[in-house]
Design a protein that fits this description.
57% of the residues lie in helices and 10% in strands. By secondary structure, the chain is mainly alpha-helical.
Length: 61
């Protein structure tokens, strides 16, 4: 019992930052706010895609 309660609490703690990131992503997309959307990524982000161009490097890409 104690072990499973600790695991559940740890999972909740780990989900909070992820949930906040998704909420920020959804809000930026809904507002069509490109600056807010791009601000969610590091300056040296590398995004891989399987449609058209295969990859993009950096926020400016």
């Amino acid at each position: 019992m104690w072990g499973s309660a600790r695991v559940a609490n740890r999972r909740r703690c780990l989900q909070v930052p992820v949930t906040r990131a998704f909420d920020a992503l959804v809000a930026a997309a809904a507002d069509q706010d490109v600056d807010a959307f791009v601000a969610l990524y590091e300056d040296d982000v590398i995004v891989c895609d399987s449609w058209g161009q295969w990859g993009y490097a950096g926020q400016g890409a």
